[in-house]
Design a protein that fits this description.
By secondary structure, the protein is of the alpha/beta class. Helices cover about 45% and strands about 15% of the residues. It contains 15 helices and 13 strands. The strands form two sheets. It has a seven-stranded parallel β-sheet with strand order 3-2-1-4-5-6-7, with helices on both faces.
Length: about 375
Amino acid sequence: MKVLIPLLSIKPQSTSSIVYVEGLLPPLVERLGGDCVVLSTPFLADRIGELGCDVVRQPTPNGRIARLLIARRAVPRVFADFGADRYLVPDGQLLPTGPRSPTVITLHHHLNFSQPEGEPLGRRLYWRFWLDDAIRRTAGRADVLIAPSHAFAEEFEELVPESRGRLRVVSHGVHPSFSPEAAPAPPEPTPSLLVIGNPSPYKNVVVACDAFARLASSIPHRLELVGLTEEDLDRLGQGRGWSDEARRRMAPLGGPPRQELPGLLRRADVLLHPSRVESFGLPVLEALACGTPVACSALPSLRELTDGAAALAPVNDAEALAAAVSELLAEAESDAATRRDRGLAIAAARSWAACAGAVADLLAES
């Protein structure tokens, strides 16, 4: 078995795909005994580092059409040069071209089919006139489609009938740095709540801010927002009616290095995760691994992942999310310990090594 792993569709802003690749590839390459080749853009090759297998660097522009044209030439060439006999595609937007070979593809979202409200027109047009068809073709051609949760697999199969019979569930893992035992961050004078997201409407960060605005007068915390700038927050807050005091205690942190996230999570009293659409919920898993309480949307994938370890609120309901946060902050010590232990057990059962083992088995069976 010789596997080509093309990564050319993953861009610097593709955070979830990058985390997936960084977590999966080292244990997977070890499991495959180096019998694989990675075709990567230079920026991602630098992020991944030494893997113990061949890594072919392919400069690729950021434009979608140019990237596709380069991938169409580069993927078959490297496949033939390496003598590969199957593909593992860690990002479902890239459909391998060339001779038909066994193909395993990881899916990360179905935003283009579920169409969360508020997405900009340009993105919706891109989904409608390119991505929808590309993913349907991917689903019809792949031997195996990897879904990160049972809930997502069920939703995707309903939205994309071409995927029926091809979906297999393999949970994402969590890096060992996300742990309550690691060295804590320096104490802050003000306690914090935390949001990890971005300005995209489907992440729904504005609802976390609305919930915080309802709580600000009764708690001493500030709301730290990973993935947002002051400009993002000013734009999201227009017309929301936040008090000056609540807005002053909202702290956009921009995009801190990923190695800072465990410290931010351990310091936070609660992680707020108000997504409208979610395939898995990696920030939620990372919070559970740190022993940090979670208040999140009651989406099927998050309900599946947290399995009683989080406080849930209906999507888009800021009042219910605020109540969930209040519940966690006021929880009795024994109840909080029970919830924390449940979250730690959920995280302990999910490692990147286990993910890699399951993916290697699917490759061998394809």
